[in-house]
Write a structure and sequence with these properties.
This protein has 113 residues and is of the alpha+beta class. The chain has three helices and four strands; from the N terminus they run ααβαβββ.
């Protein structure tokens, strides 16, 4: 009794509105029929770095276009998956990026009250 495991990969782009609003990582951001999104068991995305994310991760605004975030927006049968950042290199090759979240100061800096 032979058993086969098959995987189908379908690519779908986010809607322009979702991409412009920084919501390209949401499950419902896909264009077209919702039947595909509603019935699949696993969905991932690549999302360009926004200005707010560049500030959060300490990336110069003119460099942010080189960074993309990979994440899983739907996983029915798996554990949660942490988003991962990648940097575009020559030829469009994506390599893991090492980014450090920047600390935000709270309140008024000392000596300025």
């Amino acid at each position: 009794d032979d058993k086969f495991i098959t995987t189908d990969y379908l690519q779908q782009c986010p809607s322009k509105g979702a991409a412009m609003m920084g919501a390209g990582d949401q499950q419902q951001a896909s264009r077209g029929s919702s039947v595909l999104v509603d019935n699949i068991r696993w969905q991932s995305y690549l999302s360009s770095m926004t200005s707010a994310e560049a500030e959060e991760w300490g990336v110069d605004d003119d460099q942010r276009r080189f960074f993309v975030r990979f994440g899983v927006s739907k996983a029915n049968y798996g554990a949660p998956f942490a988003d991962r950042w990648f940097r575009r290199h020559d030829g469009g090759v994506l390599k893991p990026a090492v980014l450090e979240r920047q600390r935000k100061s709270k309140g008024v800096p000392r000596g300025e009250a």
